[in-house]
Amino acid sequence: MSLDSYKKIFPTLGKNTFVHPSAVLVGDIKLADNVSIWPLVAARGDVNHISIGARTNVQDGSVLHVTRKTKSHPEGFPLIIGEDVTVGHKVMLHGCELGNRILVGMGAIVMDGAKVQDDVIIGAGSLVPPNKVLESGYLYVGSPVKQARPLSESEKAFLTQSAENYVLLKNEYIAEQGN
Q1: pTM above 0.90, yes or no
Q2: What Gene3D superfamilies would the database entry show (predicted)?
């Protein structure tokens, strides 16, 4: 894996994390316990910070980035990802906030200042525009996203199950590397 510094700040990894050797993490990035970062993920915490919560997985080819602090946005836009989040293949997350128990579908884009509350599914290929708020408990689809319908109880349960599945998978990868 490539853990690179920016201004002498290196990424920090929680307990039992897995970062695939082809992933690149740069700068002020904090991974909580049991996070998994899969092949070809690029994450740059250079002009702001990235925080990824426990049991979250970021899948192949995803790009994670931030926006610098400016006069109009004194805090800039860090990237904050909660716990038990599944970030699908080739997702772009840029200076946004994701709550807990979220599924971001393959190829989705979530832009600066967007806030995604807990228990949300974002459909594959969807675009979440800047500063958009996605309310808890719904499926969102489209470009730009629109609230499609409430999540069923089984879909809500799947959000946690998806995160648990990736914890199990990353544990298998870690075990295999230990042999």
Answers
A1: yes
A2: Hexapeptide repeat proteins
